Give the backbone structure.
Amino acid sequence: MIGKVSIIGAGNVGATCAQRIADKGYADIVLVDIIEGLPQGRALDMLESAPILGSDAHIIGTNSYQETADSDVVVITSGITRKPGMTREELLQTNANIVTEVTRNVVNHSPNCIIIMVTNPLDAMTYLALCVSRFSRSRVMGLSGVLDTARLRSFIAAELNVSVEDVSACILGQHGKDMLVIPRLTTVGGIPITKLLPQETISKLVERTIGAGAEIIGLLKTGSAYYAPSAAVAQMVEAIVLDKKQILPCAIYLDGEYGIKDSVISVPVKLGKDGIEQIIELELTAEEKSALVSAAKAVQELVKTIKL
């Protein structure tokens, strides 16, 4: 049975994500936006590409939530994007208001769906969606880890001139400056990068990964990243709709795991048709645990400033 995926926000991330899912053909797609004509036009353009791509997925664009009813997965990309010089914190209250309204509409029409948050600041918006939806934590997650690890994997592959498929990266924590990159658990063909690269090079790759989003914003001047984020979301959606039981790093609510309670950060989880089916707890050093706790506290402080 083909799945149903609704994407709220027909901007670059939302529309590109819709195209990636439509290409695979495993789900019908509803693309929603408040701008009249935008989701309809983009959805029609994608639908007309289906015969060329060999996809029988149906896609519609709408300004209403009614067409999203009974979705299996809802991806929330709505919100303003970060502009040059803007911090994630400055995005907070505007996007919090948007995410609150969107989440309420999503829940009203798809009470059994799984929510994937993309809107920044990612960790805080995931926490907010969990509170507003009142869903179990297994059904609300954020994008961050899949995107962050993909960025690091691409940098490592380029540095060592190897296939990205042979690179596995380990990143936990907050999506942003407090992300925790763990080089000893980041490997190429099963070999830790600590044995393949000098510490100076590793440090540069880590710093570039932390600032990857800002680097793209600085280059584009008038936009932000969407190819890699949309690919990351599509991978998460596919793992859920196709019940792949795939281990992916996602932003989720922790309730004692890693010694952290009442915060949302990225950790590895098993994704399947029920959403988060298992939280994977890695063995961390004392220093790594301390950094992870600090990241969780940073998210908690951010959440406190949201006017719920």
Q: What stands out?
A: The CA atoms of residues 131 and 308 lie 9 Å apart. The chain has nine helices and 14 strands. The longest strand covers residues 261-272. The chain has two domains: 3-144, 145-304.
